[in-house]
Amino acid sequence: MVHPEMCLEPETEQMGIRCTSCEKRLTFGKALVIDERYYCWEHYLEVTGITPATEGRENDPRTLE
Ligand SMILES: [Zn+2]
C-alpha cells in the first residue's frame, strides 16, 4: 500500500519550502540546503561566500601603460 502523503510532487511546492533569508518560496529543484536549512540561489551564494564568476572584472592583469 502507498500512502497519499508519500506521493508529493516536488514541482508542485506542496512541501512549502522557503528560503531561510528572504522567505521566497522554492521548489526542491531550486532549493539549496545548508545545515538542514533551505536557501534560494542568491542567498546560498551569500551564506557560503561564493561570488559569481561574472563579477570582479576591475583588475585587468593585461593593463597597458
Ligand atoms: Zn533568499
Shape: elongated
Tell me, rounded to a whole number, the average pLDDT: 75
Order of helices and strands: EEH
The helix tally amounts to 1
Low-confidence stretches: 2-7
CATH class of the domain at 6-48: Alpha Beta
CA-CA gap between termini? 75 Å
Kindly name the structural category. Answer: little secondary structure
Main sheet attributes: strand count, strand direction, barrel closure: 2 strands, antiparallel
The bound ligands are: zinc ion
Strand percent estimate: 5-15%
Write out key terms for the chains shown.
65 residues, little secondary structure, Wheat Germ Agglutinin (Isolectin 2), domain 1, two-stranded antiparallel sheet, 12% helix, disordered N terminus, binds zinc ion
Can you walk me through this structure?
The protein is mostly loops and 65 residues long. It has a domain at 6-48: Wheat Germ Agglutinin (Isolectin 2), domain 1 (2-Layer Sandwich), CATH 3.30.60. The protein contains one helix and two strands; from the N terminus they run ββα. 5% of the residues are buried. Mean pLDDT is 75; it is low at 2-7. Bound molecules: zinc ion. Zinc ion binds at residues 19, 21-22, 24, 39-40, 42-43.
Question: What's the short version?
Answer:
The chain has about 60 residues and is low in regular secondary structure. The protein is built from one helix and two strands; from the N terminus they run E-E-H. The chain has a domain at about 5-50: Wheat Germ Agglutinin (Isolectin 2), domain 1 (2-Layer Sandwich), CATH 3.30.60.
